[in-house]
Each structure stands twice: as structure tokens, then as C-alpha cells.
User: Fold these one by one.
Assistant:
Number 1:
Amino acid sequence: MKKLGLFLIGFSFIFTACQNNLEENPRPYDLIPQDTFQYVLQDLLVLEGYVQNKYRSLPNYYKILKREGQDIFAKYNLDSARFNTSFTYYSREQEVLNDIYTKISDSLNMRSFSIENNTTQKEDTLVTTK
């Protein structure tokens, strides 16, 4: 019985310690709002995909990615330091970050579907105009 009591005390101590570490994620004073962060991250992911496909040379890849990334930050009136601070915060909030990535994925899928649908409609129009 004494061992069980010590086990429960030890377990509760470890559980409390782990729980406290999970809760310690102070919100930065300049945190980018979640919806804006989602748009910035989406633009950066699209940019990265484009640059990866177009530029195979590693030096060109990083140079162009950095330059164009700064343009994206300027579009949202941000700097890389604020983005990195916000990214660190959201990466510790796994449910929030998962939600952000899900919304980005849904948005990109809708964009892809729209492009494919427009292409298919144009091809159908070309076929019927004989």
C-alpha cells in the first residue's frame, strides 16, 4: 500500500510537471493574428513550391526565396522576426497549427480545383466550336 501511495505521488508530480511545461507558451506581444498568419504561411508555401520547381540550383533557390519572401512580408506589413516569433508560438500550439495547415490545404485544393475546372471548360469550348 505504501508503494502504491509513493507511485501515485510520483506519478502526480511527473504529470503536473509535464502539464506545466505544456502550458508554458507565453503569447508574444506582437503575435500575428491567426487568420493573417494563415495567409502569410500559405503565400510562403506557394512561393517555396514554385521556387523548388523552377530553380534547381541551391544558391539561386535561397536567394530568390529570401527576396520573394521579403516581398510577402512587406505585403502584410511584417518582418521576418515577427513571423518567426509567431511561427514559434503557433508551432507550440499544435491544435491551432493543425487547423491553420488544414485551412491552407483546403484553400489550395479549392484553388487547384478552380484552375482545373476552368481549363476543362476551355477545352470543352474548343472542341465544340468546329
Number 2:
Amino acid sequence: MLELHIGRLRFCFGFSFFLLLAVVCRWQAGSMLLLSFLAILLHEIGHLLAMLLTKTAVKFINFTAFGVHIVRSAVQFVPPLRLVVVYLAGPTVNLLLALLFLGSSREGMAVYFGAVNLLLGLLHLLPAGSLDGACALREALSFLLPGRWVKPVAGLTSLAVLLGLVPVMGGLAGKISPTAMLLWVYLLVATFREY
């Protein structure tokens, strides 16, 4: 693992990140994947800006083949509603970018970038596994409910949303794509692991 320190921020780059980057550079659709990486990076910058605005301490930023993850310091107490803002900042950035790019262009890479941001924003709003929507839901519930009720209510909400997605996925396309089904199974397993 490669570590880089800029001020008080620590950036960690795993081997898998560089491997994925090498594959992207060799692939014919490299520009599309680079735009996808840009959407992911802007998503994480949204979280980072929200963390700075809410004065939430950042422990480190980890780059892997599965994305960029910002890890906050466990030492500092952060009120639940501030964390809801932090968790929803990434998807909000993606949805605003989707609105901007899909609303201003009808062709080319701008539409692709808008579509990637739309999918990334909506995906991360799902209350499943450790996605932003699930983390925001748990924090909001911890503000509204007694502690012992947070995990069961969040888990049941996650399962209800995931089960409700099956007919939606099939209804939109007429059939469920293998990619969507794999993503759904991954989110279901991640949800069971989380709760």
C-alpha cells in the first residue's frame, strides 16, 4: 500500500487501485471509464466538503479497485444529523451533476457522464449494506429511536427496499439484466452482513 500525506490528510492507495487503473488505460473504452472514475471522485469530494463544513475529522482517504472511501476519525463525536448531511452529500453531488449534464446535452460523452452520475447518485441513496443511504438512515433513526431499535428497523427497511426493487428492475426493461441481478444479490448479501 502506498501512502501519501498532504497536510493532515492521509491518502492510501491499494495495489488493486493501480491494477484497475492499468486495465482502464489499456481498454478501448478508456475515456468512458475515466469519466466514471471522475464521477466517483466527485462523489467522494462531496462527502469531503460536507465533512469539512460540519467539522468532521477525516482519518484517511483510501483508494481501492472498489472505489474511494473516506474514513472519519472514531475519536470525535459527531451528532447524527451532521452525519446524515455528510452521507447524503456524495449522492447529492452526483444528482446535481446528472441534472446539469443530462439537461444541457443530448449526445456524446456529456450524456454518458450525466447518466453515470444519475446511476451513482441513485444507487448510493439505497438503504442497503454500507451505502450512503443505509448509513444516513441509521444515523437518522439513531436520532429518532431508542438505540436498540435502530439496527432492526434499518435492516427491515433495507430488505423491504431491496425486495421492492425486483419487480421494478423487471418492469423497466421487460426482463432483469444479469448485471442488475448481480448488483442486487451483492446489496442483499451486504445488507445481511451489516445487520
